[in-house]
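Board notes (copied after class):
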Amino acid sequence: MKTEALVFTGVAGFFAVVTALYVVWGSVEPAGTAVLLVSFVMSSLVALFLWIQFRRCGTRPQDRRHAAVHESAGPLAFFSPRSYYPVLTAAGAALLGVGVVYGLWLFLVGVGVLIPGIVGFVFQHNDR
């Protein structure tokens, strides 16, 4: 994960520099500033997540320059064979999308269905 973390750290640094230059020398257009700022924040979040995963899991065979192919074989992680959370999350996302079209009440129902699905995904197998 170290390589991926370095790539997204570089992307975040690029967006930080471009955002600063745009604010200083560019026409102060709120939409452009907001887009560049959100791009910086999103790439920073991904970089932070990858650095945390690198510290938690350690070096993978893909991170070493002279690793053999057979070293990365084996189980990736544990995935639950029977989980209803993907169905709940998909139903919540569908209700959320339809609620944007048909009204606030359906949107709020979609939020109410989506949040338990996401929480279930996150804490489904919280063994650590």
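Comment from the instructor: Helices lie at 2-25, 30-57, 85-102, 104-123. Residues 88 and 117 are 5 Å apart (CA to CA).
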